[in-house]
Structures are given as structure tokens and as C-alpha cells.
């Protein structure tokens, strides 16, 4: 299911503590989940005053904008670019506050605005995360950007929202808001109503367990062998629970294993964005130890790779498990110069672990 979101991500940088002191604005337009257009404006704040603290944050000095238009001069162009899109910002109360402050300062009519906040969305999507600033979230998702540059921040903000949509298997922003129980923010000449959480999200019912602590439903692979049903890769609680149960069960994992639970949520989202295995035809030989083969196959597909059951002429990568691998088979594979042979650890490292 694709997250076909339509919105415009925005970010302001300000010259000082005044909310009407915008010195840079950027906007990134997203259509059907793809960034299709972007624009950045340098702005001469009025009054023309820069705080040293703000300069240290974003690096914009008075000399950089002294000959630029004011916000009032630019508003016609900006409003045409934003149109009537749903605006998305990280910490939206700040950016929407700057937008309204600048409109008021320059005696521009305040249009009817619809907006939401990726900080709030991230809190609802990944409640177990500790930090929800744009930089730590982007680092966790594998999004590289230069913080406190309005255009870079707008792109990162858009990617955080797209990641949240993927994580919650949403079809649109409206669907995502409904799943997260978030009320969209609104603003106009009458004032501002910020995006907010509507009550407490309902907790999903816990899965029934067997005597061995594994989910009751299972998938059958390789004849009589039973493996746990793969969990939702975006459900951290389920991932940890499955990992603990699997390591305790000698039928699926070595009891001597001390590997920590893998953050499949992070790996899955990074895979969607970075596509580190694009163009790779991959075969898994033997049973993996850190993650299940089913999870590895899912990560391969999310990363742009193609999973194959057996090695053939099109295969260019083989991942070796730590058990159930015949040494003669390994020797035969290693002797094929066109094949890249990876251990499970190397495979996970390539995905960003």
C-alpha cells in the first residue's frame, strides 16, 4: 500500500526572537508521496535586526539579506506557491506563528490555513522514541541534511511525514491522522487552533501466546518446521517480544545467542528511503540467526532488491546463514567470481544497522 500524500512542507528561520522576523522560508511540495517542487526565499526582516544567538544557529547574517525583499513584498509569490495546500512543519506552532506574525506585520490578509505538525505525528507514530527533534528523528531514519537551513529542514520534515505514513500503512494524510487520532490545525483571521491529539489512541489487543511464548499463529516452512509469524516491522513491542521468545526456543534460535533485538522499524524505514539493495538479485542460503529469513526477505524487497529462491545466472549476491549451510555449497558459491558473498552481519550492515 503506497502512502499517496499531498502536502507542502515549510520551514522558517528567524533573525531574532520576534515571530515576525523571518529571514528565510522554504517550501517543498509533495504529490502522491513524491517531492515534486521546492522553493526558497531569503527575506529582509522588518525591523532589520539580527540576534547573535540566531545567527549562530542558522548562519544567516544581516549582509546575506540586506538587499532582499521583505516578507510583504514576497507574499504574493509565496501565497501562490503554497496555494491552499495542507502545510506541514516540524514544531508547527513555531512556523505557523512566524507565518501569521509576518502577515500581521506587513498588513497582509491572513488566509484560511490547514496544517499539521510532524513532531506531533512522530510522537504518535513512534511513541517509544525518546527524542523527537528534527535532527535526531532524521538521523534515526537515515535522512541526511543540514539542520537549520530552511530548504534542508523542509525536505527532512517531508521525509519524516512520509516515513510515518509508511510506518502506519496509511493511504493519505487524512488516513494517517485518523489512525493516529490527530486533529488537523487550522488558522485564519479569527485566530489559530493548533494540531492536537484527540484523546488517547486505543491500544491493540495483545496476541494470545502458546506455552512456549510464541504467537499462536505460525507459518510453515521447509516441511514440518514451524516458525513464528513475522511481526509488523513497525511495532517495536512486538519485535522485542518475538525476539525474546525466539531466543528462548531452541527450535528457532540458539539458546546461547546473546544478540540484542534488532530495530527492524528503523531498518525498514531506512530501506524504503535509501534503497541500498536496488538492482541486487539476492539469495539467502541457510537459516539466519539475528533475524528470521522472512524478515530478511521483506527488508530486501523494501531496499529495492529482488529475492530469489535459488542461485541462477541473474543472481549477484548471496547471504549466508550461520547454520544449515553445507560447506561444499559455500565453497562452490565462493568460487563464482560474479557473486558477492555476504555474512548476515554484513547484510545487516549494508542496510544501515
TrEMBL record:
It holds the Pfam family RNase_T. One of its GO terms (molecular function) is 3'-5' exonuclease activity. This is DNA polymerase III PolC-type. Keywords: Nucleotidyltransferase, Transferase. GO terms for cellular component: cytosol. Transmembrane segments: none annotated. It comes from Stieleria neptunia. Residues 6-170 form the Exonuclease domain. Its EC number is 2.7.7.7. Residues 195-220 have a biased composition (Basic residues). It comes from the Bacteria. Residues 189-226 are annotated as: Disordered.
Amino acid at each position: 500500500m503506497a502512502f499517496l500524500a499531498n502536502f507542502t512542507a515549510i520551514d522558517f528561520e528567524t533573525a531574532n526572537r520576534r515571530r515576525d522576523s523571518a529571514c528565510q522560508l522554504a517550501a517543498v511540495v509533495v504529490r502522491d508521496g513524491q517531492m515534486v517542487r521546492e522553493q526558497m526565499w531569503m527575506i529582509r526582516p522588518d525591523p532589520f535586526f539580527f540576534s547573535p544567538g540566531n545567527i549562530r544557529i542558522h548562519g544567516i547574517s544581516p549582509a546575506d539579506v540586506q538587499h532582499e525583499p521583505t516578507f510583504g513584498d514576497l507574499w504574493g509569490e509565496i501565497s501562490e506557491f503554497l496555494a491552499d495546500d495542507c502545510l506541514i512543519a516540524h514544531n508547527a506552532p513555531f512556523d505557523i506563528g512566524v507565518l501569521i506574525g509576518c502577515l500581521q506585520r506587513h498588513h497582509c490578509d491572513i488566509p484560511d490555513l490547514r496544517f499539521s505538525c510532524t513532531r506531533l505525528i512522530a510522537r504518535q507514530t513512534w511513541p517509544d522514541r525518546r527524542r523527537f527533534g528534527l535532527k535526531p528523528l532524521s538521523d534515526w531514519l537515515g535522512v541526511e541534511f543540514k539542520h537549520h537551513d530552511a530548504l534542508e529542514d523542509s525536505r527532512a520534515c517531508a521525509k519524516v511525514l512520509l516515513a510515518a505514513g509508511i510506518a502506519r500503512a496509511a493511504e493519505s494524510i487524512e488516513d494517517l491522522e485518523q489512525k493516529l487520532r490527530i486533529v488537523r490545525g487550522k488558522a485564519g483571521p479569527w485566530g489559530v487552533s493548533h494540531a492536537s491529539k484527540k484523546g488517547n489512541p486505543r491500544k491493540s489487543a495483545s496476541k494470545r501466546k502458546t506455552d512456549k511464548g510464541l504467537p499462536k499463529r505460525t507459518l510453515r516452512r521447509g516441511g514440518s518446521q514451524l516458525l513464528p509469524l513475522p511481526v509488523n516491522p513497525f511495532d517495536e513491542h512486538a519485535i522485542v517480544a518475538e525476539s525474546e521468545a525466539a531466543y528462548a526456543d531452541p527450535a528457532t534460535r540458539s539458546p546461547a545467542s546473546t544478540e540484542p533485538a534488532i530495530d527492524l522499524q528503523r531498518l525498514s524505514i531506512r530501506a524504503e528511503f535509501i534503497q541500498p539493495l536496488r538492482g541486487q538479485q539476492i539469495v539467502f542460503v541457510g537459516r539466519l540467526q539475528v533475524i528470521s529469513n522472512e524478515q530478511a526477505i521483506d527488508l530486501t524487497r523494501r531496499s529495492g532488491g529482488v529475492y530469489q529462491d535459488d542461485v541462477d545466472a541473474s543472481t549477484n549476491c548471496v547471504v549466508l546463514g550461520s547454520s544449515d549451510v553445507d560447506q561444499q555449497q559455500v565453497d562452490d558459491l565462493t568460487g563464482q567470481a560474479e557473486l558477492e558473498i555476504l555474512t548476515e552481519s554484513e547484510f545487516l550492515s549494508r542496510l544501515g544497522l
